[in-house]
Amino acid sequence: MTASEQAEEALRLSEQRNRSLVEAAAAIVWSLPPSGIADSSPQPSWSAFTGQTPEQYTGWGWLDALHPDDREPTVRNWSSAIASRSFFHAEYRVRRRDGEYRNMLIRAVPIFGTGGELREWFGTSIDITELTQAQEALRASERRFHVFVDRAADAFFMTDEQGRCSPLGSAPGLAVPAGRNGRGDHVPRARQAPHIRPAAART
């Protein structure tokens, strides 16, 4: 095997290892020069995740891997971090090499030398797609629960001594079957309605 072939094989193995690491950890590790603008230095994690080559991500080319709606605010926020040489934190969508957009959590910090000079930017991008999906599912579940609770009081009626019916939740100081009124406040058992029946049983 020639030296050229050995170099190509080493590069292939390096790319394979980086791709496996990204798939296992769902994380991208990257670094940029003090300017904060990407040069052609190898970014194996980014290339493994997005499929972009150094020629494609150089300068602001890495923005092409972001969702179109996320590009402008990312440029604005990253430019601000560069100007102030401060910590960068963001969430945006990155197109994976298979074409799927993934929700990413990005953090970057400026690395300073002993003399106070800015030496580089170091950052990580973590895939949080499953986490954001789980959070949205939880919020949707909570919304459905609140709708159910709001409607539950109207599914039960109380009768007074004259046999007149009225929705349980509309009676001040009276409790829904769970021992709470229409506002969700706890009601002492002694104040709960003595004559409660489901709406389906009303005549």
Chain-wise SSE layout:
Blueprint: H1 3-25, E1 27-32, H2 44-50, H3 54-57, H4 68-84, E2 88-95, E3 101-112, E4 118-127, H5 129-152, E5 156-159, E6 165-167, E7 196-198
Antiparallel strand pairs: 1-4, 2-3, 3-4, 5-6, 5-7
Helix pairs in contact: 1-2
Describe the structure.
The strands form two sheets. This protein has a four-stranded antiparallel β-sheet with strand order 1-4-3-2, sandwiched between helices. Strands 6-5-7 form a three-stranded antiparallel β-sheet, with no helix packed on it. A hairpin with a 5-residue loop joins strand 2 and strand 3. It folds into two domains: 125 residues, PAS domain (Beta-Lactamase, 2-Layer Sandwich); 67 residues, no CATH class. The termini are far apart. Helix content is 37%, strand content 23%. It contains five helices and seven strands. The chain is an alpha+beta fold.
